[in-house]
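Bench notes, afternoon.
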Amino acid sequence: MKQRIKRIDKNKPSRSLTRIIIIKVFPVIAFLVAGFLLVPYGAMRFQNNKVGTIQNKAEKEIIAKKMLSSSLNQTKIKSKYLQNIDAGEIEKEIMNHVKYYSNFRQIRAYIEDIIADYLVRNQLL
């Protein structure tokens, strides 16, 4: 029985420490590096960032008015600021410049900037 075990052991190739590191540890490190470096880059390249554009001025004005009314909603702005905001003045300023923006994100960001500028200008913050 001992001879048989010795024969099996002799037929089995010996694995040195460097061979174990190359076979088992190196692939793990390679996959970790690929995961942390390449996967986020690939995700950014293939992410869908397409935003539909708005072509005519009338549609932009309608969207801007709806966004302004939702921005001036009581739940989004504290009531002490909401009382001091002149919605008509802000709407005039938005309607004068809305033609320069081509999508929803830009219009919404512009409306938020105008409201913040109005509050700062009138020293309400």
